[in-house]
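Progress against Task 2.4 (sequence-to-structure conversion) is shown through the following example record, which the project officer requested during the mid-term review.
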Amino acid sequence: MCTTPGDHPYAEAYWPPAHLIGYEHGFISQAADMLKALAGQAPLVPLPDFEDAYRTQQVLHAALLAARERRAVDLGELEE
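Structure tokens generated for the chain above:
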């Protein structure tokens, strides 16, 4: 189970095993990691960087293009 300590990096900060964690917990965990990084500590999960954001935008652009043109779009087709 993902809420078992050791299976999920943030499980010990939330409810006992087998309890659901919600959508908001992802944001709380990310904010905690950002604050740790600002304090000079290592985050539990690596934080995304601009390269990650750029690649995400490429995938979103390809998805829009695929929907518009009703075909599969390879990321290699996109302009850098």
